[in-house]
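User: I've been going back and forth on whether these two constructs are worth ordering. Before I decide, could you fold them both?

Assistant: Sure. I'll take them in the order you sent them. The first construct and its structure tokens:
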Amino acid sequence: MEWIREFQAPPARYRIKPFWFWNGDMEEAEIDRQLREMAEKGLGGVFICARQGLKIPYLSRQWFERVRYACQKAAEYGLEAWLYDEYPYPSGMGGGEVTLAHPEAEHKILRHRQILLEHGGRYEENLGWSRILYAKAVPFADGQADFGAAVPLEAEIGNLQTEEIYQTTGLTAYNNKRFFTYRPQHILSGELPEGKWQIEIFLEDALGEFKYYGNFFDPCCKPAVETFVELTHEKYAQFLGEELGKTVFGMFSDEVGMQGGIPWSPQLPEFFKELKGYEIREHLPALYCRDYPDAFRIRYDYYDAMHKLFVGSYHETVSGWCRQHHLEYAAEVPSMRMTTQRNSTIVGGDTAHEKLGRPLEWIYDEYLYRYRSNAKSVSSLTRQLGHSFAMIESFHSVGWTMTLQDAKWMFDRLAANGINFYNVHAFYYTIASIVKHDAPPSQFLQNPYWNYYRLLTDYTGRLSAWITHTEADIRVAVLDPVASLWACAAEPFNGFAHHGSGEDKAVCDRVRGDWVYVCKELLFHQTDYEHLDAEMLDEAKIEEGELRLGRAAYRVLVIPPSQFLEKRAYDTIRSFAAAGGNVLCLGELPREIIDAGATDGSGDPASRQDLWQGFGWNEKDNLRFIEDLHGEPWWDWCQEMAGRLFAIGEDRNLVSSVRYDGKYDYVFLANQGGEKTEVRLDWKKRYGSVSEMSLENGGILD
């Protein structure tokens, strides 16, 4: 163990790096004192965050001079300085300056209205003052909406001033009474022939009031993103110069994403046409009507285009600037799929906001389906990209009653999930007045346990050093059911929720619920796994019966209940199986390839049979299809085929991690429950000795 010295005395790169909230007057003497306190208590560095309560103007010369001073002092004390790119958050607004420079980039959302007329006749609807994207009346034939016979209604839309005002004012001495009207509104008014009709309307509205700025920008508007970089990042480069990449280590981008339900951008139609070859505005009803012709493929195309547009506009732009300036790009953002963060050099998430006593199953049920809150997805993508650090922002809003015991309990769970970059929320410059209520606690010198904080920083530093210098023994991958969730119009930025009703919602809830069930049962049976996004498979290699991607190598691929697959996933599954890889399909066989032409959504058993013709489910030892997801112990087959270094007994309160460094093998166990537990541990090979490594003091006991 050449790295044992770093385990015993972890250097700064492995130690906690909190958000340092600059929420006061930011005096140099106090900045110096606080950095000295952090160094004494074993912190590894800080993210300098402009925060509500700040008394010096953000992005002013004074701001950048104080940042430069703090970075210099941090280096003197052996701390890493990291930058945070916004005031306060989410990223992209430049403290509000971006929408001043780009009023055309104000964030827009998609609104849908549906009007049912059972017998035709007259109709009238106030549509508000919104941009009309689509307005058609759809007749019914044989009980089904006939979208092919839809009647355009744009000509039936006009506008009226709808608010009447009487004022006692006048332009002459002869009259002081005036009548005015205000607030134009679009009015849809017309008449339809006898019969059942369904009027479909799609509107583009401004997001309106949001967070700290009164509005938000559209991260799909690349000129606005470039202005954000010019206003923020370029100014840091001017003031910090060659320190970027030396004493200043990286830039944090926070929470930027698309707002509302189904994401929308005015940039989307043109981009969609170039990417997919047809006009999305002509097919917007497919997003809400599953009986629209080829609805499932259109929905997939829609989300795929939005994903590529968003990533290309925001993440590629910001990460590209960081790369050019030798900075790590650390992002904690909502994702449409796991690969939303593939441009991050430090993939990040936001989880661990509980106190001791939360059941582990509650935590899994709450977080596993949200990429942003799922530590496993963060560490999975990190290994697949071949990066070194997986980051979690943790502890915001746990409250002032949070203790060091709560923190250790959460850090143990993060470590078991492969997290080795610990970013805590937050250290406050001051808690004067009402700033103390900014998503507390402050774990800094205002807190009674501050004098004992070194115990926590040493402990987590050793966890990080161990994780960084070893490799996870994870041989099972679970394919994310993104294609099926997109096909039922789940909302990816909102944890794949579906806020509608009917069959789409039922399918969405079932797919999402089954996905979570598969993942948590693997974890409860101590069979470690990683998430796998089909978009990553273009970079995968199949060698010696393993699916290899970055630092990861999988022997077992689990397909949770899914209706659709992407073609790259389907092709990889067939190639992996042919090379001797182990494939387990649960619940139902995917019935269609969603990005290989039209989808009928019929679920016809014949189409499933054609898709898997000659595959050999349950005929070959390495291919299993288990229909009864909840009735058979399918995880036993995963364990057998994975061939793990250690077998750990089932325990629904236990988190575990098995790792190796090429010479030694390691097991980490942490009880997340409230009672003592006993766990059986079996190892698959003979060891000459067994030692215990202490995370509390760095000692090694034989």
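The second construct, handled the same way:
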Amino acid sequence: LACVGGTTDCGGSCVDYEVDPENCGGCGDDPSPGDHVCDPGEVCQAGQCGLACVGGTTDCGGSCVDTELDPENCGGCGDDPSPGDHVCDPGEVCQAGQCGLACVGGTTDCGGLCVDTDLDPGNCGGCGDDPSPGDHVCVGDEQCVAGVCEASCRFSEIVCDHLCVNQLTDPNNCGGCGDVPNVGDHICPAGQWCKLGTCLVNDPPVVTFPTGITVAGAGTAAVNGLYLESGTHNGEPLYSFQSGGTTYYLYFDWMNFGWTIGPDTNSYNALYYNWAFGSGIPETGWSTHNGASPAPTVTTNRTFSGHPYIDGQVTADYIYSDVDGDPEGASAFQWHRCSSGGATPAGCTPITGATTQTYVAQQADVGMYLACEVTPVALTGTSPGVAALSEGFGPIMGWRLSHVDTDEYLGVKTVAALDGSIYVAYFPTSTSAPVVFHFDGTTKTLLSALPNAGWNGLLDLALDPTTGYPLLGYVDSANDELLRIRRWDGSAWENLDYDVDAMVTWNVGDVALACDFNGAPVLSYLSDNGGGSPTYVARWNGSAWVQLGPSFAPDTNLLNLDVAVGPNNLPVYTHLEYPGHTIYRWDGSAWSALGSNFNSSQYDSAIQVDSSNTPTLWLQNASTYNIEVRQWDGSAWQMLGSPIDLGFGVTANMEVSDVPTFTTFENIGGDYEYDVLVWSSSTSTWDNLGVFCREDYMAHAIASVLSGNHYIVLESGLILYQ
């Protein structure tokens, strides 16, 4: 045959390999490998046998699927190697070929969240991020009702046309909404006004009490006269009259639902009441003020409890009182952010949504003061009372509150772990045994218990760089001055105790702990031999403690000892002595001084060694209290920046971060203000990370983690992070 039009001769017939199911991609009687005859139900498309998918479905891996609805093949086949993932995540559904949340219970997917558009003020009547016309985000104190943003109304107010109106006094919504059809006419005619939800005719702009009208009680001549309209009071007309140098006011008192005369617009100072209402201003039936119950007050002890940090919860404390003994009902709260604090905070603005007795400080509050406006409400009797603003609390500090403990951390020490977490050691107030715990930024995990120590507050904490676990050293004054050294192995403490009784016949006065890069602990300790305070340095050799060289200054009073070790495993040691301050480094067989002796004016000190074996020394001048930070350059101690004039005390750290960091404090107005300073090698200056504490003396420890962030652990049981 001479087959034309792209067909081929197969067994004497001209066929189209592309579409013929009996000869699909080749002749069906071709003995070569491959079956060119499609199975029943299959069709031939482009020379390939496949399912005959109908109804808008698509063949995906041998199955006919609806790519508009199938979550395994959403918008295309799930096994399609082309860009784009056509398999929906767990919990998602496929709609119009797009994966999305499977929102149930009448909720709607808005930006990846299932929300109730009938109630959610951020997505009211539709998604708040919907670009179509209409704003679906309620503002201010609005609430979402049936998908419509409505104002949050006060007592006696109702929502009319999305606005709060007083149905008792509003002439356009008198007794109900004026725009509601077939429910009665709530719009007062011209010339009428609304009182207690009823339109009234009597509304004289000038009210005359003619001579001879007696108001029951004394002083009728003073209060009787021509009262002229002079403004409004609580939405009602206000009238005034002067007599004998005193201005008297005539107004409607909503607290008692009656007309009132008094020297001011405070109903508790009223002279006369007329309990009639609904028929204009009365001219008869007045009675003396009979001592109606004043509103409850909160004029005393409006203070706070809580912590002035980001994520710190603050509670408004106050004393509620009511002269009639009415119990407190649901008092109202409104938190304010203020520019100044004290007894009368200033520059205050309300914080949207902060209307409960507690408030959690936010980033926007840093540097500002918080104040809470309390409106007392009685369960019975006259209410509400007058809103009053509390004292200012703060300023809020720029450190995040990560943990609050019920116990105090006495003698606290901390060290950074290799994974960005920290270990903390301290003496609790309830026992004489130290406590060590691990903190990962969220969870506090206690390590196993340690022996009692006859509490003395002398402890130190170090990290074993070979395991990432902590080492603890503390003085056990209850056991003949035993130095307890413990190493954590991940599940238990290994006992490396050092009985110094053979060398020290008096008290152990201090201890400092480090660990070399082979995992060998190094400790220094101070003793009192009755004539001086010598110090010693020793290293663990795997089975016993070996003293490194002789003691330092056996006849001199020493203070502030510290020890550190770098990757070269050569300990660096320092102490304060009189006169002078010297730093020593172990060379493998003996101690040698690094540089000359600093003069006797140095008061406090700390030392660290970075990953390049460079020692950094912190010193405080006993005369000026300036803090000097110096680094050893191989031949001399070089100052980092200028002396820091910030106050008193040094707590230094540069463990895993290699960045010199320290804290210090100064006395400001009777309180101590603590700062954190970090060395910037790019600008050769000290950057102040801001105040982390403003109160009485507060022992603390600092750990700088690998991320460049810092933990502050306060003796009060707080852990801060920045």
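Notes on the second construct follow. Confidence is low (pLDDT under 50) at residues 203-219, 290-295. The chain is about 0% helix and 45% strand.
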